[in-house]
Design brief:
- The chain is 41% helix and 26% strand.
- The chain has a single domain, classed as Transcriptional regulator MraZ domain (Chemotaxis protein chec), CATH 3.40.1550.
- The two termini are 21 Å apart.
- It has a 6-stranded antiparallel beta sheet, with helices on both faces. The chain has a two-stranded antiparallel sheet with strand order 2-6.
- Strand 7 and strand 8 form a beta hairpin.
- The chain is built from 6 helices and 8 strands.
Length: 142
């Protein structure tokens, strides 16, 4: 599982160096898409294939399912690291996540998240000031 948070910069072409700690996690290819709270999700290719199977099983007759698929699946892009361990974040995803220069790359269970630095610190401060329900914390810590 990838964990940790790293500050990086996008270059003028929208490329970002993948943190060393996360390179093995996505070395076989990756898919990036729109995430929740305005970040980007980055999945290893094998994980994405499992997600696609789950999306295919959603009912076409369910308006909420269709809406989520539009949001999540239509924004997806297959990416590869180049020889300098960079990925090119597509313009539509950069626009969605408001990625301009300083970004945070954070590990999460089964994925990476790429955040606009200001949004990231807002989320961290919000979680610190408004922690999850006590029963959630209790179940995590025992």
């Amino acid at each position: 599982m990838p964990f940790g948070e790293y500050q990086y910069n996008l270059d003028g072409k929208g490329r970002m160096v993948v943190p060393v700690a996360f390179r093995k996690f996505i070395e076989d290819g990756l898919v990036s898409t729109r995430g929740m709270e305005g970040c980007l999700y980055v999945f290893p290719l094998a994980t994405w294939q499992h997600i696609e199977e789950q999306l295919e099983g959603l009912p076409l007759t369910d308006a909420e399912a269709r809406s989520f698929v539009r949001f999540f699946y239509s924004g997806a892009a297959k990416l590869r690291m180049d020889s300098a361990s960079r990925i090119l974040v597509p313009p539509t995803l950069r626009q969605f996540a408001q990625l301009e220069s300083n970004v945070i790359v954070a590990g999460a269970p089964s994925r990476l998240e790429i955040w606009n630095e200001e949004r990231w610190w807002h989320q961290v401060n919000d979680a610190m000031n408004n922690p999850p329900a006590s029963d959630v914390l209790r179940s995590l810590t025992g």
